[in-house]
Write a structure and sequence with these properties.
The complex is a heterodimer of chains A (622) and B (88).
Chain A: H1 2-5, E1 8-14, H2 20-28, E2 32-36, E3 43-50, E4 56-61, H3 73-83, E5 94-100, H4 105-117, E6 121-126, H5 128-133, E7 137-138, H6 140-147, E8 151-153, H7 162-175, H8 188-205, E9 206-207, H9 215-223, H10 228-246, H11 248-269, H12 274-291, H13 294-310, H14 312-326, H15 334-342, H16 344-350, H17 357-366, H18 375-386, E10 391-392, E11 396-397, H19 398-425, E12 434-436, H20 445-479, H21 496-508, H22 515-521, H23 530-542, H24 551-558, H25 561-573, H26 578-588, H27 591-618
Helix pairs in contact in A: 4-8, 10-13, 10-19, 11-12, 11-13, 12-20, 12-23, 13-15, 13-20, 15-16, 16-26, 17-19, 18-19, 18-24, 18-25, 19-25, 20-23, 21-22, 22-23, 25-27, 26-27
Chain B: E1 4-6, E2 15-21, H1 31-40, E3 48-54, E4 62-66, E5 69-73, H2 75-78, E6 81-85
Antiparallel strand pairs in B: 1-6, 2-3, 2-6, 3-4, 4-5
Classes of the chains: A alpha/beta (622), B alpha+beta (88).
Domain FeoB-type G (chain A): 7-175
Protein name (chain A): Ferrous iron transport protein B
Keywords (chain A): Membrane, Transmembrane, Transmembrane helix
Chain lengths: 622, 88
């Protein structure tokens, strides 16, 4: 009876695109924890399922794979977890193989491999509603007998079949015996034999669909069209960035108003003095100036998540492969690089899908050049302050256009840098590019919303854990020591922050930065958007006697256009994110490559700012 | 008359059956690995294939229907696959 009382451990295994993560979400709901496996940097997603009679099971969502014969770090984790060889992990009591019911051929071969491992197993035939709609007939009893494995049909996005699945897992956990693993890495001949066996099982128990999916073919005829497909991809990216600006504006105004109202309220309640200054000028204005960008970040993620769920990302990789290949990148690098538009950290980690070490390293080195969402606060602030909000060419918003240009600058420089990396550091065999193009699916609203919520949580967590202490420290640096009695300059000139800023100012003077900007760059190393909070704090304090206007209008009055453009150029390149550098160090497992990245990015940043500043001054922007 | 070609030589709309996977690629250092990866993605002898789409530059990469799924790969890798083209 002991076995029934202890928490059963479940591992989810399946092909990519089988809806495995959707099933994981359906099983565990909000009860999930995302971390890393000990020693490696593969994302470890674990959750808890409440089963009948109050018992709970822990579920591990393993990276998708076609085979236990691992080729990438992700797939190694899947293999080792299933085999019970993963250091620090208890072997799973039950392996749940998640299969796309409409695409069984490859997963049947995987099931044959999993069976050789000898652990109790359940097969979840997911997306069963689509199979039924297509008139695909699966002889469940026959398949069950043939495979010797319990089978449950599920529709993860509708939570259908989830209770049956939990019951089947519980039965297997209690009843099924563990046998010795007979698994070993299959060679080509064994793979052929297994494929033939899978084919025989398919023929015997699965009748081809009466109404096969023709929609995917029709959509692909447009989206993968050599010319129209690329045009659509570009248009999509353009719409995405315009949307980030225009859709978010009302929400951002609302948040900004709320923060102003809160600051005013606190200022009215608290007596004048240090505490009021810390809370209003330090914390509320600092955190508020970052919080305001939540709508933009969520809109960007909304596009990325929806396109991924729709099945478009693999198409984008297909369309971009040749262009990226020309720059020495792998087509698969498109997804890590696109994720880097949100944040370089998931981008660098997503580079694990690239099997080749060299291609992976190149992708990691250029991923931080992609315009991550932490740059958005900096870009929008400067754009709002210096670029007029007007329509050009009759349709495009000038501010949106400048933003588009900044993104383009990031992309072009990433391609050029990877070309240089390939020429300087290596030349060798081109790695294979092959990937499944999944069937298109209408993204499920609930799961998109759930993933968006996860993103918002991560962003707010960051805001709390990194930005709050950073702005507090900055407030201290900007407040103490007090100015002398007969001070003629703003108080901040006499503070620690002023001293540090002035000490470093000569280094940055040639690129047009004043000392306030230099101060902002220092906490800005914690995370890019902290620079905005820092500017907010320094200028709010320096301007204490003025009514607290918008930071943007303060900057517009204080900086020249050349300085503003130079600051933008700096932010395209500078590796202003300690967290990213930490992840790069871990992922490359090399200090040398981390330093190479830091060096080339700061070098490019200084060079670009220098050129931008002097060109802008020469053209009259000084 | 047979019409045996490398999949890398196929053009949009060509259909047929895979007759050899790997084959003469073993002189490549990673030929054995490539063969296994192709097999795992469903490219086995006897699989029905159809070239669905070609990229803009150099008609590369290509999208192939393999039995009932779709796979994207470069012509460079497709050279390891031999197909018997259906006669129109």
């Amino acid at each position: 009876m002991d076995i029934a009382l202890k928490t059963a451990r479940i591992a989810l295994v399946g092909n990519p695109n089988s809806g495995k993560t959707a099933l994981f979400n359906a099983l565990t709901g909000a009860h999930q924890k995302v971390a890393n496996y000990a020693g490696v940097t593969v994302e470890r997603k674990e959750g808890v399922v409440r089963a009948a009679a109050g018992r709970s099971m822990s579920v591990l969502d393993l990276p998708g794979t076609y085979s236990l014969r691992a080729r990438s770090p992700d797939e190694e984790v899947t293999r080792d977890a299933v085999l019970g060889r993963l250091a620090g992990e208890t072997p799973p009591d039950v392996v749940v193989c998640v299969a796309d019911a409409t695409n069984l051929r490859l997963v049947l071969r995987l099931i044959l491999e999993l069976k050789a491992v000898g652990r109790p197993m359940v097969l979840a035939l997911n997306m069963y509603d689509i199979a039924q709609r297509q008139g695909l007939r699966i002889d469940l009893d026959g398949l069950r007998a043939e495979l010797g494995v319990p089978i449950v049909t599920t529709v993860a996005t509708r939570r259908r079949g989830v209770d049956d699945l939990i019951a089947a897992i519980e039965t297997q956990a209690e009843m099924a015996a563990l046998s010795d693993s007979r698994w070993r890495s299959p060679d080509a001949a064994e793979l052929r034999a297994a494929a033939r066996e899978a084919e025989r099982i398919m023929k015997a128990h699965v009748r081809p669909p009466e109404r096969p999916d023709t929609l995917t073919g029709k959509i692909d005829a447009v989206l993968l069209h050599p010319v129209a497909g690329l045009a659509i991809l570009l248009a999509l990216l353009f719409v995405m960035f315009q949307a980030v600006f225009s859709w978010a504006a009302p929400l951002m105004d609302g948040i900004e108003g709320g923060i102003g109202w809160l600051g005013g309220l606190v200022a009215a309640v608290l007596p004048d003095g240090l505490l009021q200054s810390l809370i209003v000028d330090g914390i509320i204005s600092g955190v508020g100036s970052v919080l305001v960008f939540l709508p933009q970040i969520l809109i960007l993620f909304l596009f990325i998540i929806a396109l991924e769920d729709f099945g478009y990302m693999a198409r984008a990789a297909f369309l971009m492969d040749k262009i990226m290949g020309g720059a020495g990148l792998h087509g698969r690098a498109f997804i890590p690089l696109l994720s880097s538009f949100a944040c370089a950290i998931p981008g660098v980690m997503a580079a694990r899908v690239i099997d080749s070490k060299r291609d992976r390293l190149t992708t990691i080195l250029v991923a931080p050049l992609m315009t991550c969402s932490a740059r958005i606060p900096v870009y929008t602030l400067i754009i709002a302050a210096f670029i007029p909000n007007e329509t050009v060419w009759g349709f495009a918003n000038l501010q949106g256009l400048v933003m588009f240009g900044l993104y383009a600058a990031g992309i072009v420089s990433a391609l050029l840098v990877s070309l240089v990396i390939r020429k300087v550091f290596w030349r060798g065999a081109v790695e294979p590019f092959m990937m499944e193009l999944p069937t298109y699916k209408v993204p499920d609203l609930k799961s998109v919303a759930f993933n968006l919520w996860l993103r918002a949580k991560i962003f707010l967590n960051r805001a709390g854990r990194i930005i709050l202490p950073a702005v507090t420290i900055l407030w201290v640096l900007a407040t103490f020591p007090y100015p002398p009695e007969n001070a003629t300059l703003p108080a901040i000139d006499y503070s620690f922050a002023g001293m540090i800023g002035r000490a470093l100012e000569p280094i940055f003077a040639p690129i047009g930065f004043n000392w306030q900007m230099v101060i902002a760059l220092i906490p800005g190393m914690a995370a890019r958007e902290v620079a905005v909070a820092a500017l907010g704090t320094t200028y709010a304090i320096a301007d204490a006697e003025n009514a607290t206007g918008l930071l943007a209008s303060t900057l517009a009055a204080q900086w020249s256009l050349a300085t503003a453009l130079s600051f933008l150029a700096w932010y395209i390149f500078a590796p202003q994110c300690v967290a990213t550098l930490g992840v790069v160090r871990r992922e490359t497992n090399s200090l040398k490559w981390t330093w190479i990245m830091i060096g080339y990015m700061f070098g490019l940043a200084y060079l670009a700012s220098f050129v931008t500043y002097h060109v802008a001054r020469a053209l009259g922007g000084g | 008359m047979t019409d045996i070609i490398k999949l890398s030589q196929a053009r949009r709309g060509d259909r047929g059956v895979i007759v050899e996977v790997g084959g003469h690629t073993h002189h490549q250092a990673n030929g054995v690995e490539l063969e296994r990866r192709l097999l795992e993605l469903g490219f086995v002898e006897g699989a029905r294939v159809e070239l669905l789409h070609e990229g803009l530059f150099g008609r590369d990469p290509i999208a192939i229907r393999v039995d009932d799924m779709r796979v994207a790969l470069r012509r460079h890798e497709a050279a390891s696959l031999t197909m018997k083209r259906d006669l129109a």
